[in-house]
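User: Just a sanity check before I run the rest of the batch. Below are the structure tokens for the first item. I only need the designed sequence back.
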């Protein structure tokens, strides 16, 4: 296949045509090389968006492959970024680097040895271009005149680049840096001048390939998901070799499945997805024969496979096997602009090694995602599908999984109907993150429900659950909190086993819980006796039960974190309960790394009196039963007539139909519709199993995007006509709610 020489593959670092900018940078680096005894020397330029610095060129040395490929332009952990921002020469001694590594352990990957780094800004009074950075390994004394020379060379380079920029020469950093040969120090002036004017290296060097492999390895090491692997392959494999698109396929159960693609159209992906491995195609032949297949043009591809359904969008393509643990597990498809030139042997060798790394990472990411999906499904299946719909109380819940590992924790919550007509609120947390924790959680949740249904009080339920846990032959301990609420009187009986006490605030936001006795966690001591307390809950009060994953205890301390959560609950206790729940978990959602699962159970006690504005109703529609929307409209007509609210019928039918239809299309579960009447409005809730929130989608010019977004179009109607609306994850899925204002009489 014709793969990029200098014309077609302009991004290949040593194959692209050297510009006047490249020659100017090369001359500056060689001037430093002639004067300094350094280990690496690199020129950084700004990227397109001016938000980052990328390595544009470096002197070819034994440590060149360890040079950072780039950094955010304002990242103070790198001397080049500091110099670029400050406009001053920055010197990092080894002690400075050790301190940085302690703060940012990831820097060890590029700074594993003692060194010293000096960087000078490449800028004029009118424009900033980047920085020149020099490293010495190991650190050594450097005279001031050497640093002055670095500053001078950077200033002269900046002046030259400014002149070239005014002539229209691009100053954007390339995808990969050029490597230039080192020059010898000393020699005749004429020879020195010839060295400085020499163009960048005309052919790949060992450091070029090593640099690419190191960059790919670094990205794949950090890759967790398939999307991460795809991004690494696209930036570190496809672009450097001049490709325009990549498709990663894995062979599973006799068929080929596309697990990631970038640059290919949806139609091209669909042509490959699900292909039988027994069918002769370029992808399947590549896997079966474990050989590279390349075609210089779409015509060559069609001639080689005349019986295969042609891809009308195909251009020059290369098909390369993905090999993992000694067997071909899939295929990588690269597409190039035509015409393309053949790979040279050195390029094929590097490409083969790169794709072996990609294949291993792809399998690992695939296994991780499958395991993660399995554990998430198992954990969520043990949570309540929905919470009870009560006249005397309104409830909602949130569950936020940890992000640090594939395993999930044993956090759970539940609302249990009690024999006397009350309800039991339960929340618990099993120690650790593992499938065992999830299994223990499922067993305890079932036992608590059984003991509560038998009529035992909270303390007795904890005592019996504690003895049950001892018989499960597990070393895990469990924290748990039980609140039995008498709906007719508002009396709450509370018992806890090593769990944070619930927060209860009245309608004015005053905390009414006070100190509560807390026994040890379940599983610590078999014969533990638990105490319980009673609290009077007034009408309008809000009860919040939560696990410690919701508290930022590692940063604030447990007491301060509890106090902070209590303030949010008190300040916003009058909010819509779904909005209040979102406020309580808002900080948690903003954390980049979640070390623990978090669960929240929220309930507002509406009182026992039967009032005219306390009417409620509900119905459900079977999953994917779109004809059920007609039943919803009929249900609403009858209900609104019964409630003497016929004027709201048209608006209610329109809004409810849109939300229910959206849920039926996307959720793989039945859809539950709930209505609750208030003095000034009717609250409508639609609950389903899909945790992803619906998003209103604007109409745009692109018809294909319009068709894809049609499912979100109806929410524009909801947004326009509803008094208020929102969507929040609750139980195993989400609740989408809206209010319709009741006209004044």
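Assistant: Here's the designed sequence for the first item:
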């Amino acid at each position: 296949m014709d793969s990029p020489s200098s014309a077609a593959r302009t991004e290949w670092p040593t194959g692209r045509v050297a510009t006047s900018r490249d020659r100017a940078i090369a001359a500056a680096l060689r001037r430093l090389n002639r004067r300094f005894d350094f280990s690496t020397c690199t020129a950084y330029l700004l990227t397109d968006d001016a938000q980052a610095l990328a390595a544009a060129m470096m002197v070819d040395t034994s440590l060149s492959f360890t040079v950072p490929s780039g950094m955010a332009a304002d990242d103070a952990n790198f001397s080049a970024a500091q110099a670029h921002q400050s406009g001053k020469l920055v010197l990092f001694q080894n002690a400075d680097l050790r301190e940085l590594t302690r703060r940012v352990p990831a820097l060890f990957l590029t700074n594993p040895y003692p060194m010293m780094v000096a960087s000078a800004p490449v800028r004029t009074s009118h424009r900033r271009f980047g920085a020149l950075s020099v490293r010495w390994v190991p650190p050594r004394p450097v005279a001031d005149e050497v640093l002055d020379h670095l500053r001078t060379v950077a200033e002269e380079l900046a002046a030259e680049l400014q002149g070239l920029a005014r002539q229209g020469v691009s100053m954007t950093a390339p995808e990969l840096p050029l490597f230039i040969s080192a020059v010898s120090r000393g020699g005749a002036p004429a020879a020195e001048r010839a060295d400085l004017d020499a163009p960048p290296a005309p052919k790949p060097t060992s450091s070029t390939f090593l640099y690419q492999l190191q960059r790919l390895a670094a990205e794949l090491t950090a890759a967790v998901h398939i999307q991460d692997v795809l991004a690494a392959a696209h930036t570190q494999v496809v672009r450097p070799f001049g490709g325009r698109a990549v498709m990663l396929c894995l062979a599973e159960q006799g068929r080929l499945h596309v697990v990631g693609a970038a640059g290919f159209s949806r139609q091209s992906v669909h042509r490959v997805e699900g292909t039988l491995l027994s069918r002769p195609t370029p992808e399947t032949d590549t896997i079966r024969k474990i050989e590279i297949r390349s075609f210089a043009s779409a015509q060559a591809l069609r001639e080689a496979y005349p019986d295969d359904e042609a891809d009308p969008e195909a251009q020059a393509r290369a098909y390369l096997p993905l090999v993992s643990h000694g067997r071909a597990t899939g295929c990588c498809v690269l597409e190039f602009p035509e015409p393309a030139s053949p790979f040279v042997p050195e390029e094929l060798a590097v490409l083969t090694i790169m794709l072996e790394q990609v294949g291993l990472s792809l399998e690992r990411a695939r296994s991780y995602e499958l395991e993660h999906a399995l554990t998430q499904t198992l954990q969520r299946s043990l949570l309540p599908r929905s919470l009870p719909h009560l006249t005397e109380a309104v409830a909602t819940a949130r569950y936020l999984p940890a992000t640090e590992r594939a395993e999930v924790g044993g956090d759970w919550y539940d609302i249990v109907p009690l024999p006397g007509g009350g309800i039991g609120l339960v929340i618990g947390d099993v120690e650790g993150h593992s499938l065992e924790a999830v299994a223990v959680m499922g067993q305890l949740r079932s036992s608590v429900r059984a003991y509560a249904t038998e009529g035992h009080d909270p303390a007795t339920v904890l005592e019996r659950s504690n003895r049950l846990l001892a018989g499960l032959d597990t070393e895990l301990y469990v924290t748990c909190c039980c609140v039995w609420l008498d709906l007719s009187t508002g009396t709450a009986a509370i018992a806890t086993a090593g769990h944070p006490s619930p927060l209860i605030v009245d309608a004015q936001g005053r905390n009414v819980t006070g100190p509560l006795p807390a026994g040890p966690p379940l599983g610590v001591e078999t014969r533990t006796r638990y105490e319980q307390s009673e609290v009077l809950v007034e009408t309008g009060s809000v009860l919040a039960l939560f696990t410690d994953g919701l508290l930022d205890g590692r940063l604030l301390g447990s007491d301060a974190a509890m106090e902070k959560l209590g303030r949010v609950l008190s300040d916003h206790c009058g909010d819509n309960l779904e909005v209040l729940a979102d406020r309580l978990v808002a900080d948690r959602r903003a954390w980049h790394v979640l070390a623990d699962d978090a669960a929240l159970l929220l309930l507002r006690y509406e009182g026992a009196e039967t009032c005219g504005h306390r009417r409620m109703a509900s119905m459900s529609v079977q999953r994917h039963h779109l004809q059920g929307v007609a039943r919803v409209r009929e249900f609403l007509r009858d209900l609104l007539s019964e409630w003497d609210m016929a004027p709201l019928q048209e608006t209610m039918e329109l809004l409810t139909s849109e939300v229910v239809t959206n849920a039926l299309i996307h959720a793989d579960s039945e859809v539950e519709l709930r209505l609750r009447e208030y003095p000034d409005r009717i609250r409508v809730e639609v609950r389903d199993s899909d945790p992803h929130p619906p998003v209103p989608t604007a109409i745009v010019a692109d018809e294909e995007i319009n068709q894809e977004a049609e499912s979100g179009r109806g929410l524009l109607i909801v947004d326009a006509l509803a008094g208020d609306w929102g969507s929040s994850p609750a139980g195993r899925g989400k609740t989408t709610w809206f209010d319709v204002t009741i006209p004044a009489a």
